[in-house]
Design a protein that fits this description.
The protein is an alpha+beta fold. It is built from three helices and ten strands. The protein folds into two domains: 76 residues, wza like fold, CATH 3.30.1950.10; 72 residues, Outer membrane lipoprotein wza fold like (Roll), CATH 3.10.560.10.
Amino acid sequence: MIKHFFTLLAAIFTVSILSATDAAAQNGYKIRSGDSLNVEVVEDANLNRTVLVLPDGSISFPFADGVKAAGRTTSQVASTLASRMASNFATTPNVYVSVAQIGERQAVDGTLSSYDIFITGEVNNPGKLDGKRNMTVLQAIAQGGGLSRFAAPKRIQVRRGSRIYQYNYNTNAGNITLQRGDVVIVPQRKLFE
């Protein structure tokens, strides 16, 4: 019985050391554009979310929009968020920030090695694609397995945030270079299209 107790105690001690090491590693990590951060507000769980560090190095968060995150540690970002949101709470909220996912890193020549784009609709293999530097809509369709027989090739859209670009597969008109997070939508053709 005592042997099991010491084994359990050793396991708990090991887990606590690993957790402390992980927290220390995150505290020293300098956040970069493209990273995803978990933000937890103890006083209001409705505010808990994962946010993306934008290319300009900032994050968007309710009550504290436009907080600079790139080049800072998680504890520095948490402190800034707490002070910016303080006017919306009776007391300064307890905010915790951790790195959820490290974003893509740049190669030596300054270009991104790969990034996520998405293709959906009437393609043979819809889903997430690994975008490469200077990847075009036509290349994304090819990587997605080509158009299905029900595709409307003249009405393909590329959505980039709130902007929508049109692409015609038949003439290659509107063939743009894709960026991180772009969504290529291949609609279903209509009856007499």
